[in-house]
Design brief:
This protein has a single domain, classed as Glucose Permease (Domain IIA). The protein has 1 helix and 11 strands. It has one helix at residues 38-47, and strands spanning 15-18, 32-33, 55-58, 69-73, 79-81, 86-96, 99-109, 115-124, 133-134, 140-144, 165-172. Strands 1, 2, 3, 4, 5, 6, 7, 8, 9, 10 and 11 form an 11-stranded mixed β-sheet that branches. α1 links the parallel β2 and β3. It is globular, with a radius of gyration of 17 Å. 32% of the residues are buried. The mean pLDDT is 88.
Length: 179
């Protein structure tokens, strides 16, 4: 399964990966790690790099695989689109300190029904419904919310703004066991 950018590439401020704490699967970054260590940079400079033009950052945090959560930075109000073709299987609230801040939208990808892609830190489009089919890059899910007043934004270290972003995680879908 391939994830598409949920934000128009011209509006992306930074891309960062970190370890999620809730069983999310490791993602395979595309491009070059922008904040890799000196030794790795030297090796890539001498031997060449197969990275590509996309640059991403490895952010601190979490206990799972270091690339199991993906932050795609953008200014608040930026449109957010589905990163996969699939079906919306859940729309929930994002709660911080007892208050609701936007939504988490869960999508079951058409080409990987054993997985669920979660997109959060968004104000969901009010027309979205569970069971609705969405298309990568075409179906608008909502807009980026301003989370800077709620939590420290790790991406802000690599941007000229407060580091607001859309959070993407991929998890195994729940399965029912026969008895």
């Amino acid at each position: 399964m391939k994830l598409q950018l949920p934000i128009n590439a011209s509006r992306v401020t930074a891309i960062g990966y970190f370890g999620s704490e809730d069983g999310s699967l490791a993602l395979s970054p595309v491009g070059t790690q922008a904040n890799e260590g000196l030794l790795r940079r030297l090796v890539h400079k001498i031997l060449g790099s197969a990275g590509g033009s996309t640059r991403w950052y490895l952010l601190a945090g979490g206990h799972g695989p270091s690339t199991s959560a993906l932050d795609v930075g953008a200014a608040p109000g930026t449109d957010v689109y589905s990163p996969v073709n699939g079906t919306i299987v859940g729309i929930g609230k994002v709660v911080r300190n007892g208050r609701t801040y936007g939504a988490r939208i869960d999508i079951q990808p058409s080409d990987a029904p054993s997985l669920v892609v979660s997109i959060s830190h968004v104000k969901a489009d009010p027309s979205l419904t569970v069971g609705e089919m969405v298309s990568a890059d075409a179906s608008k899910l909502g807009v980026v919310l301003d989370f800077a007043r709620v939590e420290q934004q790790a991406l802000s270290r690599y941007t000229n703004d407060s580091g607001n972003h859309v959070l993407i995680e991929v998890r195994p879908s729940a399965t029912l066991q026969a008895r």
